[in-house]
Structures are given as structure tokens and as C-alpha cells.
């Protein structure tokens, strides 16, 4: 079993399964209602069920359907193609190109209520009772916990921050290989699926993935345009067949077909938008480190407001750049005495 550290894979358990633990800051883990009878139909509906919950275009990200975490509710992972390409290159360089990819926050035990938290070296892994998980810097943990309604916490690793002291109990963690084996999702699905036999070279595989990403961003010629049109037509036909099967009363023609499909899908509410947006913001700000001190956090509508401060000059520009690089729509305003207000908005 391996984990990513410093841009390379390191061994964390020689007896564990062939798995690479990847940083959860780069993975958006969502709970998605997919009341459909088969996995194939759930996969077909997945892009339409989450497109209003992510900032990136659907074609720019890898969507992964995991296990059930409720009645007709499933864990879904969203990862940028460029990130998957980087991880595959790291795995192949370490000789583990066929390894499963598991977000590291999912190795925490799933709590019956509240949060499981593992705090180590200024980084917090969090797994929630709803089956989702995320990671963030310790500086944001107390504010995130407060904004989530101060859920019950079971903890491991370093002591919890003072504000959370007495709110958490230790959990008896099973052996790491057992927890990894029980993880409800493997990111190696679809075009990144693990295959038996010889794998293509790192250079060839990364080139293929980056080529797909380039197509998704519009760097295409006439022949590629025709190809994408054919793909879109096949997707449209598959979606129409899915609607005929699951909702026979819904018309499948006309320009407003996509709108009618969207009306069939469950809508995210304010509660389940909070953790995904928080996870993305926390991941974007983690590299800034302890120089950014979070004082408070609120979530209303689709806006996450973070009150923080920093002794460093130019921090607003650094925060603004970090959020922009992560594709997060946000406003960053300076206040007196080094205070900052960040207002990030979900899709």
C-alpha cells in the first residue's frame, strides 16, 4: 500500500493491498440521489445529476460512481483529468501502475453520527456520517466544524484544537489494510480502469489523457469537431432511451429536452452543498498554510463566507490566486488589521 507524498509514491504498509492513497483535497466526494434500477442507468444519469454542483465543465472531470451510502443514494467522486493523469504517472513511476486509487479520507471509520477526524501534522481528514469525506488544513477545521453545526466528533492522531476539546472521543481504528479494503470507491474506473496484462507506457498514457483534456477545452480541429458531434449524438440517444425506460411519460423530443431531464433529477439543497464547497475551498487554501488564520465561517444560500486574518502583506492576492486556480468563484476583501473576508459561491 502506498500514499502520495512530495510528488511521489511512498510505502505506508508493506502488507496492504495494491492501493495508492491519494490526497482528498483534490477529490470532491458527494452524496448523490440516483433512484435508478441498474448501475448502467445510474452512470448514464450521473453527469446530469451533479453538473450544477461542480464548477468545472463535465468533460474536464472524471466522474466515479461508488457504493451506496443510503436508500438509492450513492457516493460519487469528481476529479480533474489532469490530476488523474498526474497520479497515474506517479503510480507507474513507482511500479504500481495497476493499483487502485482511494481518497485518503475514506480510510477513516464511517461514524454513526457526526464526524470522524484524523488530525496529523496540521492536516485534517474528515469522514461524515452521510458517507462523504474531505480534507483541509488544521487552520480551517474549527470554523468548518462550527459552520456544520458542531457535530459529534470521534478523533485520532494529534489532539483536537482547543475549541473542539471535550467534543470528541477516540475511535478504535481497525488495521489500515482492512480500512482500505472497505473503502466505498476506487477512482480507477472508466478510461482509467485497471487492466490486467501489460499497461501502456507512462508517456503514452499521459499523452492520451492530456489529449482528451485538450479536446474538452476546445483545442480541436475539424475532424475532432465531427467526432465530438457524433459522441454528443450517441449520448443524446442513450439519454433518451434512459428517459423512455424510467419515465415513459416524459417527451424525449424538442429543444427543452435537457430541461425536462433536469426536472427529473433530485436537487441539491443548502445542507449538502456546504461540505462540497468547503472541501474545494479548503483544498485550494491548504498550500497557504498556517499564515492564514480562520476566525469564523457561515454558509447561506450557495455562498460560503470565511472571516480570517493574516500577518503577511499581500495575502488577499495569494488567496484570490489560489481560489482562481482551483476554479472557485470568490470575492476576497481586505479589512483593517490584516483581516480578510472570503465569499466563495457554489455552482
Give a verbal description of the structure.
A hairpin with a 2-residue loop joins strand 5 and strand 6 (73-80). Among the domains are: 1-108 and 173-219, Nucleotidyltransferase, domain 5 (2-Layer Sandwich); 270-345, General secretion pathway protein M, EpsM (Gyrase A, domain 2, 2-Layer Sandwich). With 347 residues, it is of the alpha/beta class. It has helices at residues 39-50, 81-93, 141-147, 176-181, 202-216, 222-246, 257-264, 270-285, 315-325; strands spanning 2-5, 8-11, 19-22, 28-33, 61-70, 73-80, 100-103, 115-120, 123-128, 133-137, 153-157, 168-170, 293-300, 303-309, 329-334, 339-345. The strands form four sheets. The chain has a five-stranded mixed β-sheet with strand order 10-9-8-11-12. It has a four-stranded mixed β-sheet with strand order 2-1-3-7, covered by helices on one side. A four-stranded antiparallel β-sheet has the order 13-14-16-15. The chain is globular. It contains nine helices and 16 strands. Helices cover 33% and strands 27% of the residues.
Provide a short characterization of the protein structure.
With 347 residues, the chain is of the alpha/beta class.
Radius of gyration: 21 Å
- The total count of helices amounts to 9
Strand order of the largest sheet: 10-9-8-11-12
Instruction: Kindly state the percentage of residues in helix.
Output: 25-40%
* Average pLDDT over all residues: 80
Per the CATH scheme, the topology name of the domain at 1-108 and 173-219 is: Nucleotidyltransferase, domain 5
Largest sheet: 5 strands, mixed
Distance between the termini: 36 Å
CATH class categorisation of the domain at 1-108 and 173-219: Alpha Beta
Q: Determine the structural class based on helices, strands and strand pairing.
A: alpha/beta
CA-based shape = globular
Give start-end ranges of low-pLDDT stretches. 197-225, 265-271
Q: How much of the residues is beta strand, in percent?
A: 25-35%
Number of strands: 16
**Quaternary organisation:** single chain
Which CATH architecture of the domain at 1-108 and 173-219 would you pick? 2-Layer Sandwich
> Could you state the order of secondary-structure elements as H and E?
EEEEHEEHEEEEHEEHHHHHEEHEE
Amino acid at each position: 500500500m502506498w500514499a502520495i507524498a512530495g510528488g511521489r509514491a511512498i510505502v505506508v504498509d508493506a502488507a496492504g493491498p495494491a492501493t495508492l492513497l491519494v490526497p482528498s483535497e483534490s477529490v470532491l466526494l458527494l452524496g448523490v440521489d440516483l433512484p435508478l434500477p441498474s448501475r448502467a442507468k445510474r452512470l448514464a444519469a450521473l453527469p446530469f445529476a451533479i453538473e450544477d454542483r461542480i464548477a468545472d465543465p463535465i468533460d474536464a472531470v472524471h466522474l466515479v460512481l461508488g457504493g451506496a451510502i443510503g436508500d438509492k443514494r450513492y457516493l460519487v467522486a469528481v476529479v480533474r483529468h489532469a490530476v488523474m493523469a498526474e497520479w497515474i504517472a506517479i503510480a507507474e513511476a513507482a511500479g504500481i501502475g495497476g493499483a487502485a486509487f482511494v481518497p485518503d479520507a475514506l480510510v477513516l471509520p464511517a461514524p454513526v453520527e457526526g464526524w470522524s477526524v484524523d488530525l496529523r501534522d496540521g492536516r485534517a481528514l474528515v469522514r461524515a456520517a452521510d458517507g462523504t469525506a474531505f480534507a483541509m488544513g488544521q487552520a480551517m477545521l474549527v470554523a468548518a466544524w462550527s459552520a456544520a453545526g458542531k457535530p459529534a466528533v470521534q478523533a485520532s492522531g494529534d489532539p483536537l484544537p482547543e475549541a473542539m476539546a471535550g467534543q470528541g472521543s477516540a475511535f478504535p481504528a481497525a488495521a489500515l489494510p482492512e480500512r482500505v479494503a472497505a473503502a466505498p470507491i476506487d477512482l480507477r474506473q472508466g478510461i482509467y480502469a485497471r487492466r490486467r496484462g501489460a499497461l501502456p507506457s507512462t508517456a503514452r498514457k499521459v499523452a492520451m489523457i492530456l489529449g482528451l483534456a485538450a479536446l474538452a477545452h476546445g483545442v480541436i480541429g475539424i475532424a475532432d469537431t465531427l467526432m465530438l458531434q457524433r459522441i454528443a449524438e450517441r449520448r443524446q440517444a442513450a439519454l433518451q432511451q434512459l428517459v423512455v425506460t424510467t419515465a415513459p411519460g416524459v417527451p424525449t423530443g424538442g429543444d427543452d429536452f435537457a430541461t425536462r431531464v433536469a426536472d427529473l433529477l433530485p436537487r441539491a439543497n443548502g445542507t449538502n452543498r456546504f461540505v462540497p464547497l468547503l472541501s474545494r475551498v479548503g483544498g485550494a487554501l491548504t498550500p497557504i498554510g498556517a499564515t492564514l488564520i480562520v476566525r469564523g465561517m457561515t454558509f447561506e444560500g450557495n455562498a460560503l463566507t470565511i472571516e480570517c486574518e493574516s500577518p503577511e502583506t499581500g495575502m488577499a492576492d495569494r488567496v484570490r490566486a489560489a481560489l482562481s486556480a482551483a476554479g472557485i468563484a470568490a470575492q476576497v476583501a481586505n479589512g483593517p488589521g490584516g483581516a480578510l473576508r472570503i465569499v466563495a459561491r457554489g455552482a
